[in-house]
Amino acid sequence: MSSSKIVIVLDITSDILSELTDIATNFILERMYNTPNNKIALILLGTVDTEVSLVNGNVDHLDHMKVEHPLLPGNTELINKVKNIRSEGRINDRVDVKAGLEIALRLFHQETSKTHWMSENRIMLLTDQNTRYGGSSSEDIAKEMNMLKPAINLMIIGPDLDEDQLTENCKALLHLCEKVDNSGHISIRDAKDITGSYKTKKVKQQTTFKGCLEIGSNLKLPVNGYTKVMPCKGVSLNKCDSSGNALVRDRTYHEESQDNKAVDPDLIIKGYKYGKEYIPISKIDESLRKRQYDKELSLICTTDRKNIRYNCRHRRKLCY
Fold first, then answer.
1. How many Cβ atoms from other residues are within 10 Å of residue 143's Cβ?
2. pLDDT at 210 > cutoff 90
3. Could you tell me which of 187, 129, 178 has the C-alpha nearest to residue 13?
4. DSSP output for the chain
5. pLDDT confidence tier of residue 116, bands split at 50, 70 and 90
6. Is the whole-model pTM more than 0.85?
7. Would the pLDDT of 301 be above 50?
8. Lowest mean pLDDT among 56-65, 109-118, 248-257
9. Which tens digit of pLDDT belongs to each residue from 160-191?
10. Rounded to the nearest 5°, which phi and psi values hold at 169?
11. Cα(259)–Cα(276) distance, rounded to whole angstroms?
């Protein structure tokens, strides 16, 4: 499976900081559950302190910025960092988002891991209509994004305003988006709707296992297994006609003969092929073919993890 690299640039001086953090949190959660091998970095713009020690090169002009999380697989620590972002830890003035994009590009250049041809390099910029962008060198930034292999996919999550309502900074930022080959712009409202579907759905807990844990000959403990976490499935897609009317499947069975006679579904039973004929099997005979097992667990012994060979382990689960 290919490993994509994603850098999230979050403008914490935004007036809608809580909405931007919700979008970033839901996006990271979706990536953690569905593609856990992706590497995700987080850059904060507008912090009181400046922490860019993870970035190589000249950093004297990079003020009030912080690399909160380097390019590493997403984890709960990253989720907690995004959720704990507060307006008290930011400055009042706007920070040029162009410097944040510069830090993101440096992180990509510093990445030394091998790149799969199907992997993706993405920069997600989350800001609002009052963003600040010094776009005098938009062509240079766009050229650098297009020259990376694979090329940067720039996604700007920002305001959804009419052309006459856009500020000069917003227009310059959208102009940069047009210069990048793989780029897109999505409004905050649409981003909330899309990432909101990533949230997990609460369901009634049902046992996936009911049995007995046997320890020795005298101790037996009842054990119930539950599914605690599972990916949230999207809306199921059903077939319909071009007018939007629902369709109903109607299945019929016919004899494999010249008459091609239709058979009533109530008369259909299972059978097996013997030579050129099919031998019917009753439900009683079919039940006898299935083996019945008691769901039980038995503790044979305990041992240290290092005593188990590596090829008998899969991640943190043991396979026997």
1. 12
2. no
3. 129
4. ----EEEEEEETTSTTHHHHHHHHHHHHHHHHHH-TT-EEEEEEESBSS-B-TTS-S--TT--SEEEEEEEEE--HHHHHHHHT--GGGB-SS--BHHHHHHHHHHHHHH--S---TT--EEEEEE--TT-B--GGGHHHHHHHHHHSSSPEEEEEEE----GGG--HHHHHHHHHHHHSSEEEEEEHHHHHHHHHTTSPPP----EEEEEEEEETTTEEEEEEEE----PPP-PPP--B-TTS-B------EE-SSSS--EE-GGG---EEEETTEEEE--HHHHHHHSPP---EEEE-----GGGS-GGGEETTEE--
5. low
6. no
7. yes
8. 109-118
9. 656 667 788 888 888 888 888 888 888 888 88
10. -65, -40
11. 18
CB 207 within 8 A of CB 224: yes
Q: At 257, which amino acid appears?
A: S
